[in-house]
Amino acid sequence: MEHRIERIKKQLHAQSYKLTPQREATVRVLLEREEDHLSAEDIYLLVKEKAPEIGLATVYRTLELLSELKVVDKINFGDGVSRYDLRKEGAAHFHHHLVCMECGAVEEIVEDLLEDVEKKIEDEWQFQVKDHRLTFHGICRKCQQKNNANN
Amino acid sequence: MEHRIERIKKQLHAQSYKLTPQREATVRVLLEREEDHLSAEDIYLLVKEKAPEIGLATVYRTLELLSELKVVDKINFGDGVSRYDLRKEGAAHFHHHLVCMECGAVEEIVEDLLEDVEKKIEDEWQFQVKDHRLTFHGICRKCQQKNNANN
DNA sequence: TTATTATTTGTTAATGATTATCATTAGTTT
DNA sequence: AAACTAATGATAATCATTAACAAATAATAA
Ligand SMILES: [Mn+2]
Ligand SMILES: [Mn+2]
Ligand SMILES: [Zn+2]
Ligand SMILES: [Zn+2]
């Protein structure tokens, strides 16, 4: 944890930004809830527990900044809000998601499944891939079992 | 064109919805601009040229309805608006996109590049895939050439 | 140190996309 | 025609995000 904060601090300094207490508190929340996919509002409420004086705009600003630094990725699952997702340490590409259409659960896939596809895109479409977004919509394991039980 | 409208009409009737003049005008705009990725507002302005009396809310309602019927897919490229994209006729899955980070151009890939990946997801994650969203972010052919010329 | 300048923050107001409300219209069924 | 239902258009409401701006904080110069 401290290790990752140190690294983010360095990334900020490299662009001559500072790791202010507000920014640190925000990063800590993101680290603590790494599995989740929190909205700005969610994050704001959690940061408030650590730093009650923080303002919502600061959280938005921090998340924007962390997006620029590619510390977080901003995603949209189609409900009306943006969600912020910590990049896996050292990952070149954004990880994938499995979204259950029944229960809404979101599972992460860290393994990069798109290497072959990207090669194809670069070769056949002459498009130079920098990053990707991949989400599967379907039925999660739990819901499949639940459905089978009720039949 | 007429053929596709007929088919959409049948899909609507199958759920006992009607193809009203407003809905038809909206569908016609979507067909005429099939390559594009229009926002609700964009579509509203285009429909107004055919049917000036139409209201914005009706356009939203129609797009919502067409989404339910899977005639269109609602997507979000990260600017603040939802965009609506006609499904390719008979396609089981949503097509892919290449978004240029420099000029913003959006290219479509109709070929399904994810069959192997989906098989893997189903086998190794026990997740039953119904659909997917795949977008690549990078540099389009044109911008690559432009960049090379300037070096 | 003190004065000056640049960053960052919190509060608040503004914006802009989407949704809800509701009276009106069009279409169907008796 | 009367009664009922579905769909529409105008408008107001909602809600996430951004902008504005004065106050606080940190960095730098004098
Ligand atoms: Mn994730
Ligand atoms: Mn498309
Ligand atoms: Zn589920
Ligand atoms: Zn380009």
UniProtKB/TrEMBL annotation, chains A, B:
User: What does the entry comment about cofactor binding?
Assistant: Binds 1 zinc ion per subunit.
Q: Which CDD domains match?
A: Fur_like
Instruction: From the UniProt record, give one GO term of the biological process aspect.
Output: negative regulation of DNA-templated transcription
Which InterPro entries does the entry mention? FUR, Fur_C, WH-like_DNA-bd_sf, WH_DNA-bd_sf
Quick one: signal sequence residues? none
The protein's GO terms of the molecular function aspect are: DNA-binding transcription factor activity; transcription cis-regulatory region binding; zinc ion binding
Residues at which Fe cation binds: 115, 132
Cofactor(s) listed: Zn(2+); Mn(2+); Fe(2+)
Q: Which UniProt keywords apply?
A: DNA-binding, Iron, Metal-binding, Repressor, Transcription, Transcription regulation, Zinc
- Sites where the protein binds Zn(2+): 100, 103, 140, 143
Tell me where on the tree of life, at the top rank, the source sits.
Bacteria
Q: Which family, according to the similarity comment?
A: Belongs to the Fur family.
Recorded protein name is Ferric uptake regulation protein
Protein species of origin: Halolactibacillus alkaliphilus
